[in-house]
C-alpha cells in the first residue's frame, strides 16, 4: 500500500531526523569506537548470537546504543548522516552513510562517507519539502559528485510513490539513464496505516511493483506501521507491531530482490515504533532480535 505524506507525518519524521543530525556532523570518533566496541562484541559472541546481514535498523545516538546494536543482532545500520555521530557500532555491524541533501554534497562530507563505508545512500526524501526538498534536475546535477566516491550507490530515498510512472523516482532514474549515471540499487521508505495482518501484503505489493518497474535490487531503509492521517500519529499496539515484525521480516527474507531492510527505529525515545529503551528491548525489540 502506497503511503502518501501528511503534515503530521512530515513534522514527526523531521523532528526525528533533525534530532539525529544535530548530535554531531563529524565522525572523528574512530578511536572511541574501537575502545568501546570490544566488550559489546565479546558479549555478543559469548551469547552465541549471529547478526543477520540483511536485517538492519535506522538509529540516532542514545545512551546504550552500542549494546542495543549488539543485542538486536543486525548486520548494518544507518543514521541519515555521512558520519557515525558518536555511535560506536559493535564489530561486524556495518555503518552505511548517507548524503542527506544538497547541502551535504561537500568534499568534506563525501570524503567522510568514503572513509566510513563502502555503500552510500542518496538523498533523503527529496520529494518532500520538509526533508531534502530537491528537484529531480538538481539531484541529477549533483549525482556525479556522489558517484565520484566510487562507492556502491543507492538511489535517492523517496518517501512514497516509487512505483509510479512520472513520479519523482521514475523521473530521476530516467534522467540518470539518459546521462549514463550509475544507480546500483533502489532505496525506499514505507509506512503502513493499516495495522491488520493485511499490512504485510501491502508492503509486499509495493516492493513488487517497484521491482517490476526498475529491476534493480531494493533496500528498504525505513519501514514501520504508523498512521499519520489524524491530528497526531496513531501507533499500533505492541502485539500488532510484533505480529507485523514477524510477518514482514519473514516476507522480506524470502524476496531475493530485497537486499537489505531497516526498521524505524532502534530507540524508543522519539518513535512509537522503537525497539529498545536504552539497552532493554520491548516486545517488538524482542521479536526483531529473534529474526535471523
Automatic annotation (TrEMBL):
UniProt keywords, alphabetically: Hydrolase, Signal
InterPro entries named in the record: ASL1, Asl1_glyco_hydro_catalytic, GH
Signal sequence range: 1-22
SUPFAM superfamilies named among the record's database cross-references: (Trans)glycosidases
Molecular function via GO: hydrolase activity
Ranges of residues in domain Asl1-like glycosyl hydrolase catalytic: 71-288
Any one Gene Ontology BP term: fungal-type cell wall polysaccharide metabolic process
Pfam families on file: Glyco_hydro_cc
Keyword Hydrolase applies: yes
Keyword Chloroplast belongs to the record: no
Protein name: Glycosyl hydrolase catalytic core
Source organism: Goodfellowiella coeruleoviolacea
Lineage summary: Bacteria, Bacillati, Actinomycetota, Actinomycetes, Pseudonocardiales
Amino acid at each position: 500500500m502506497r503511503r502518501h505524506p501528511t503534515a503530521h507525518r512530515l513534522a514527526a519524521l523531521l523532528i526525528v531526523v533533525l534530532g539525529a543530525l544535530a548530535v554531531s556532523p563529524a565522525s572523528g570518533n574512530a578511536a572511541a569506537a574501537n575502545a568501546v566496541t570490544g566488550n559489546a562484541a565479546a558479549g555478543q559472541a559469548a551469547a552465541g548470537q549471529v547478526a543477520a546481514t540483511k536485517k538492519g535498523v535506522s538509529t540516532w545516538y542514545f545512551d546504550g546504543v552500542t549494546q542495543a546494536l549488539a543485542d538486536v543482532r543486525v548486520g548494518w545500520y544507518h543514521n541519515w548522516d555521512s558520519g557515525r555521530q558518536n555511535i560506536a557500532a559493535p564489530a561486524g555491524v556495518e555503518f552505511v552513510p548517507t548524503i542527506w541533501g544538497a547541502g551535504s554534497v561537500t568534499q568534506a562530507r563525501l570524503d567522510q562517507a568514503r572513509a566510513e563505508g563502502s555503500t552510500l545512500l542518496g538523498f533523503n526524501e527529496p520529494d518532500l519539502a520538509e526533508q531534502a526538498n530537491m528537484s529531480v534536475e538538481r539531484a541529477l546535477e549533483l549525482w556525479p559528485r556522489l558517484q565520484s566516491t566510487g562507492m556502491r550507490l543507492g538511489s535517492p530515498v523517496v518517501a512514497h510513490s516509487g512505483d509510479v510512472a512520472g513520479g519523482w523516482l521514475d523521473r530521476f532514474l530516467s534522467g540518470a539513464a539518459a546521462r549514463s549515471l550509475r544507480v546500483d540499487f533502489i532505496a525506499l521508505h514505507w509506512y503502513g496505516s493499516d495495522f491488520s495482518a493485511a499490512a504485510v501484503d501491502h508492503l509486499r505489493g509495493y516492493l513488487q511493483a517497484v521491482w517490476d518497474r526498475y529491476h534493480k535490487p531494493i533496500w528498504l531503509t525505513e519501514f514501520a506501521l504508523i498512521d499519520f492521517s489524524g491530528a497526531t500519529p496513531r501507533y499500533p499496539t505492541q502485539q500488532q507491531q510484533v505480529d507485523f515484525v514477524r510477518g514482514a521480516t519473514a516476507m522480506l527474507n524470502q524476496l531475493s530482490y530485497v537486499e537489505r531492510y531497516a526498521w524505524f527505529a532502534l530507540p524508543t525515545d522519539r518513535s512509537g515504533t522503537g525497539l529498545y529503551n536504552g539497552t532493554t528491548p520491548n516486545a517488538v525489540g524482542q521479536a526483531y532480535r529473534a529474526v535471523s
